[in-house]
Amino acid sequence: MGIVDQEQQPSQKVPDQRRRGEKQPPMAGPDSVASRLQQETLRLLHELQVHQIELESQNDELRRSREELELSRDAYAELYDFAPVGYVSLDAQGVIREANLAVANLLGIDRGALIGKPFAGLIADAAGRELFARHVEAVRQRAGMQSCEIRLAGKECTEIHGQLQSVALARENGTGYILTSIVDGTLRNRMEETLQNAHDKLEGTIAERTGDLTRANLALTREIQERRQAEESLKNSYAEIKSLKDRLQAENVYLQKEIARQHEFGGIIGESNALSYVFFRVEQVAPLDATVLLLGETGTGKGVIARAIHDASARRERSMITVSCTALPANLIESELFGREKGAYTGSDARQIGRFELADGGTIFLDEIGEVPVELQAKLLRVIQDGEFERLGSPRTIKVDVRIIAATNRNLEQEIREGRFREDLFYRLNVFPITMPPLRQRKEDIPLLVNHFIAKFNKKIGKRIETVSRETLKLLEQYHWPGNVRELESVIERAVILSRGTALQVLDRFDSFPKTGGEPGQEVRILAELEHDHILQVLQKTSWRVEGKSGAAVLLGMNPSTLRARMRKSGISRK
After folding, report:
1. Collapsing DSSP states into helix, strand and coil, what is residue 393?
2. How far, in Å, CA of 170 to CA of 149, rounded?
3. Rounded CA gap, 57 and 64, in Å?
4. Rounded percentage of the chain residues whose pLDDT exceeds 90
5. Confidence of residue 258 (pLDDT cuts 50, 70, 90)
6. What are the pLDDT digits (tens) for 206-221?
7. Residues in Cβ contact with 290 at an 8 Å cutoff, skipping those fewer than 6 apart
8. Using CA atoms, how far apart are residues 323 and 358, in angstroms rounded to an integer?
9. CA end-to-end span of the chain, whole Å?
């Protein structure tokens, strides 16, 4: 409006200025003044429009901010009112200015009745009010959250274990206030009391149970002592029974079968000293990969011992391939052992994998190794020594990892002297020799073997042979058994077939055969050698310690002086 008045009355100001005697600028023309006035007016209008737009934008921002603030305050009010934790806002004097629904429900007091009430009036005891006063002072003086625990008076004279967490804040008008949260600890305290009661009860139960166990342990100790006394009495009774046992004419075969199982090692049955030494040797060599040479007469169980060595070795998960060198024709044994390519010779119309390839990673058992032709022994020596060979008809070398177990009933040293066996092959095979004793050198094993074979053929044939007379056992023990265990098995099978009733009847005429075999003194010499080797092994195991708890005499079941005498007799001395 001021700008419009100047344009309507321009002539009034000029005379006034002249009357005051002021210097006036040179008078411009009417057109120039009007032009300037118009430009100034446009400029002012433009500035007013810009200011108007800025004011409207600021008003919009203020309106949006106010709306957001109102929404935020509404949300805060909802969070504050409906929070699961009780909240109160206190002024500097500890008077409640705001309270949410949770704290009203917790205390059982209407929210309106809480406003304006001193918070200290809600505390149940004087000690709690004093603690709360210190709490408020700490909130005022220290930054951050402050905590304390007090007891509050609830509805119907109940007490609430309140846990307070307070912080000092400032309002928009600059006044300070305290925001305090309250988690009802009553349930926790009850749970703690329940837990403590349960703990006390558990300790009492443990103490009671410990007393029961102590009494039970004492009773068990007495029972053990009584049992030991009973066992001692049973031992004495057993000695008497044993003296009467010899008068009986028959034995229970099935009971003997259970006893025989206690004396079984990898299928070999017996408890004689000669066989025990074989078991000892097997246990020594089985975990190793050393080549084993099994020596002994036909029928002594060399194949079963070979299987026992394999089953107790680290290769037991792989195959043990058995090759009977006597069962293979001389012209086929090479292809059976090492394989052949198709067309290797006339009639070989298919490729064949040899036994050494099949045994790769496992064990190969060369039974009756003394029957291998001399011309093939060099190739056999190479695979034992270097683990490699070629198939017939193929120049490609094959590598295998095979453990060698060989067996023979021949005297290989005599075969070497007569030019039928290579000496270098013998030394490669004779790394760890085990000699199988003939049955005539372990006659104490015959009752166990007889009972074992009776049980076997009872099941196979369907018979019920239950007893063996003392005379029959004596007859079997006196026979020299040139066919060894294999011959005994055949005799028992025939006897089971031919026997009538439940008693074993042996109809073979053993009196027509010599009752001793071999060269004069041969058995004594072999037993002496076995005893020498066994004593030497035990002494090496005990580091040549003869006496003491872990000495060789204890392991051998001898008196130390007796052991020293046998060492002198056998020529055993520490090098």
Report:
1. coil
2. 25
3. 11
4. 24
5. very low
6. 888 888 888 888 888 8
7. 431, 432
8. 11
9. 138
Q: What are phi and psi of 404, to 5 degrees?
A: -100, 125
Residue 505 — φ and ψ, nearest 5°? Answer: -120, 115
- Beta-ladder partners of 320: 363
Task: State both tokens at 145.
Answer: 């959250």
Closest C-alpha to 212, from 204, 222, 200 = 204
Contact between 3 and 42 (Cβ < 8 Å): no
CB-based contact 492:457 (threshold 8 Å): yes
Q: How far apart are CA 362 and CA 549, in angstroms?
A: 40
- Partners of 166 in the beta sheet? 146, 180
- For 383-405, what is each residue's pLDDT tens digit? 999 999 998 888 899 999 999 99
d(CA 353, CA 375): 21
DSSP string, 481-493: -TTHHHHHHHHHH
Q: Residue 153: beta bridge partners?
A: 159
Specify the amino acid at residue 191.
Answer: M
Please return the burial class of 129, using the count of CB atoms within 10 Å of its CB with bins 0-12, 13-18 and 19+: middle
* CA pair distance 525, 523, nearest whole angstrom: 5
Task: Please give the helix or strand (H or E) that residue 183 lies within, else none.
Answer: none
* Spatial distance between the Cα atoms of 229 and 237, rounded to a whole number of angstroms: 12
CA 152, CA 165: separation in Å to the nearest integer?
14
Report the predicted TM-score, pTM, of the whole model to 2 decimal places.
Answer: 0.47
Measure Cα distances from 85 to 164, 169, 361 in Å.
11, 19, 74
Residue with tokens 């025989």: 260
- Compute the distance between CA of residue 264 and CA of residue 248 in angstroms, rounded to an integer: 26
Structure tokens at 282: 């097997």
**What is the DSSP track for 499-535?**
--TTB----S-GGGS-SS-SSTTHHHHHHHHHHHHHH
Q: Per-residue b/e over 201-237, b at no fewer than 16 CB within 10 Å?
A: eeeeeeeeeeeeeeeeeeeeeeeeeeeeeeeeeeeee
DSSP assignments along 171-189, one per residue:
-TTS-EEEEEE--B-HHHH
Task: Please provide the average confidence, as pLDDT, over all residues in the chain.
Answer: 79
Tokens at 358, concatenated: 């099949």
* 334, 336, 338, 343: CA torsion to nearest 10: 80
Under 8 Å between Cβ of 325 and 464: no
What is the number of other CB atoms lying within 10 angstroms of the CB of residue 362?
19
How many Cα atoms within 13 Å fall on the side-chain side of residue 370?
A: 20
Q: What is the CA radius of gyration of the chain?
A: 56
Name the one residue in this structure whose structure tokens are 């001692």: 232
At residue 512, what is the residue type? S
Distance CA 79, CA 489 (A): 96
**DSSP bridge pairs for 269:** 264
**Structure tokens that stand for 330 in this block:** 């001389």
What element of type H or E holds 432? strand 432-435
SS3 (DSSP) at 98 = strand
Q: Quote the CA–CA distance of 405 and 369 in Å, as a whole number.
A: 10
CB 312 within 8 A of CB 272: no
